[in-house]
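Chapter summary example.
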Amino acid sequence: MTTMRDTLLQSSHIALLALLFTTACGEQIVVENTLAEISEVTPIALTSADEVSVSYLLSDEEGDDQALTVEVCEGSADSPQDCGLAFEGTGSDPVSFLPTEQGGRPLSHVFTWDQNCGRIQGDTGEIFDTTLDTTYIFRLRIKDERAEWHYSDTFTLMELGVDAISDCER
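The structure predicted for these 170 residues follows.
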């Protein structure tokens, strides 16, 4: 038979345990947010719609969604010129709200460039037309001032098998 004294003793033990757990968990651990990383940019491919795609691996230790800047430049990684924002093509992953996995496991993403529409010069808004025999390169960067540019291999549209530049369907 449980007495009033036993009930009070049990209640005080429960209250003491609750107090112990809340004070033990009261210390907040602050973990610095690490910079997401593009770890690999794969070779360029031409899609069935004559759009140019580049794949890359994206990781973030905390699993935060990321935003990227994707530009197409003339030249090479050593001397990129006339860089501009690439027009996003069919089947492209977005450049904002790109998912990553917690723990930094790299996820594969693809950006598709509608090369028929060219690229936009960021500072002036000027649209650069695309040509078949110009040497291009993709450059990708996480939208963070600490992030570095990552470059694809160079390519020309003729090398990829494009015969003509079509009208842009925006």
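To summarize the output: Strands lie at 37-41, 45-46, 52-59, 68-74, 81-86, 107-113, 119-120, 127-128, 136-142, 150-151.
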